Each structure stands twice: as structure tokens, then as C-alpha cells.
UniProtKB/TrEMBL annotation:
Name of the gene: grpE
Taxonomic source organism: Corallococcus exercitus
Family per similarity comment: Belongs to the GrpE family.
GO CC terms, sorted: cytoplasm
UniProt name for this protein: Protein GrpE
Single GO BP term: protein folding
Domain of life: Bacteria
Record-linked PANTHER family: GRPE PROTEIN (PTHR21237), GRPE PROTEIN HOMOLOG, MITOCHONDRIAL (PTHR21237:SF23)
Length: 196
């Protein structure tokens, strides 16, 4: 009654309302801080995932490159072995050629010596074939400069025989897809018959 309007509330009732407001605001701040921390951790997690994916791709690329390198080395080694096999085979093929010449000059001879030479030649040829060396069949086929050398030419009046191999002077051989020695052949050449 001192002339001041009195509030119905006492100071005791005002204090808890202020502390509740302060508690709500500190809870909101704590939640905001916690949300910020969660967002930061999620960003770090996402960055870590991207880095792990990057490293995994790098590892896959490295493994792929390693396998390709191993395959390339294996192919190169096989190619070098084929070249060496071809070099060794040429020596063997020269011996077979000499035996072929002996047999060509004694076709009618049936003596034991000729039979022995034929057996040795056949044995060497089968051993060469067992190592992957293949004798080229060129007689009667169209002339191919990739597998044969034309050493002679024969004139033919038959147009269908033009550019066909008619005789073989020396056999040609192939090892896998590589010609180790081309055949030496005689090729037919068509010439129209003279009109009288």
C-alpha cells in the first residue's frame, strides 16, 4: 500500500520462469552445438569415404596394370622363344632339304640305303612338326608372296592356271603364325595362244 501497483506475483514466482528461459536457451544452444558437431563429423565421414573409394580405385588400377604387364612380358618371352625355335629349326630344315634332294634323285631306287635315308628324313620331319613347325603346301595354289619366293616362271595357255604354283624347288615352313622360311617355287603365267 505504498502507492505502487503491486504485481500479483512475488519475486519467488518470477525467478523460476527466468531460470526456465535460461535453461531452454542453453538447451537450444547445446542442441545447435551438437547439430554442428554431427554435421562436421558427417562431412569428415563423407570425405573419408571418398578417399577410401579413391584409394580402392587406385589399387584396382595398379592391379590391372600389373596383370597387363605380366601378360605383356609373357607374350614377349613367347615371341623370343619362337624366334629362337625358328633359328634352330632352320638348321634342321636344311638337313631335311638335303635329304629331300637325295630322295628326289633316287626315286626309283629301293635299296636299303635309300629306305634308311627316307626313314631319317621322315623322322626329322615328324620331330619338326612335333615342335610346332608346319610344312607349307603351295603347289597347285595361287601364288602368295608372303609364303613363297618365285624362283622361276612357266608359260601356260590355260587362263585358270595363271599365277598358280606349279612346282616347288624348296619347301617352306611356318612356326605358329610366322613364316620361318618361305618356299621357293615355279609360278605359271598365262599367255594367250597366238592366233594363226
Amino acid at each position: 500500500m505504498d502507492g505502487n501497483p503491486r504485481s500479483d506475483e512475488t519475486p519467488e514466482t518470477q525467478a523460476p520462469a527466468d531460470s526456465e528461459a535460461e535453461g531452454a536457451s542453453s538447451d537450444t544452444q547445446a542442441e545447435a552445438a551438437q547439430d554442428g558437431e554431427v554435421a562436421r563429423l558427417q562431412a569428415e565421414l563423407e570425405a573419408s569415404r571418398r578417399r577410401v573409394n579413391e584409394l580402392a580405385r587406385g589399387l584396382q588400377d595398379l592391379t590391372k596394370d600389373r596383370e597387363e604387364f605380366k601378360q605383356r612380358i609373357t607374350r614377349e618371352r613367347e615371341r623370343m622363344l619362337d624366334v629362337e625355335r625358328g633359328n634352330v629349326a632352320r638348321t634342321l630344315l636344311e638337313a631335311i632339304d638335303e635329304l629331300d634332294l637325295v630322295l628326289a634323285n633316287s626315286q626309283q631306287d629301293t635299296s636299303p640305303l635309300v629306305q634308311g635315308v627316307r626313314m631319317i628324313r621322315d623322322s626329322l620331319l615328324s620331330k619338326a612338326q612335333a615342335t610346332g613347325i608346319e610344312r607349307l603346301e603351295v603347289v597347285g595354289r595361287p601364288y602368295d608372296p608372303n609364303v613363297a619366293e618365285a624362283a622361276d616362271m612357266e608359260v601356260t595357255p590355260v587362263q585358270g592356271d595363271d599365277q598358280k604354283v606349279v612346282a616347288e624347288f624348296r619347301a617352306g615352313y611356318r612356326l605358329k603364325d610366322r613364316i620361318i622360311r618361305p618356299a621357293r617355287v615355279k609360278v605359271a603365267r598365262y599367255v594367250a595362244p597366238a592366233q594363226a
